[in-house]
Amino acid sequence: MKEENRLKIKPSRSSEKRAAHAVEDLARQLVQTSQGEMENLPLEADLKREIGRVRKIRGHGAVKREIKHLAALLRRDPEETEKIRECLEDRQSGDYRNTEDFHRLEELRERLCAPATGEKALLEIESLLSPEERARLQKLIHTCLHSKDKKAYREIYRLLRSNLDSGT
Fold first, then answer.
1. Fold of the CATH domain 12-76
2. pTM beyond 0.85, yes or no
3. DSSP of 82-105, one letter per residue?
4. Which residue, 27, 37, 33, is CA-closest to 64?
């Protein structure tokens, strides 16, 4: 009998509170998620209605209270809550990858447009470009270096994004 009691150890009150706060944070994220992204989440109809209702509320205290209510609805089905959390995390990691790619391409454009590093950067990506694209890129770099044309600068980024997003 003592062994059965040991196996049924209740989680500490602190861990229960952490779990409750985590579900409240998830509810807050759901309320802040755009309508288009909401369509991609595995939500039941009653949760979608509740989220829509919370979005319409303007009072700060009322929003806090309704988020707690939404969190209580989420706690009813822990498996569904975990699926929702995973979907949101996947979306956020995808956003991070997009931002990382954006910064990588911006940094490459900066190196291409700098007189000291332009040739070296062009040699790095030479194999990923067709001869026509390479000639176009060289022309845009030349324009960028010898004029203050921001259009060429933006066009370099577009060319890099269209060719290197799938290549690297």
1. Diphtheria Toxin Repressor; domain 2 (1.10.60)
2. no
3. HHHHHHHHHHHHHHHHHHHHHHHH
4. 27
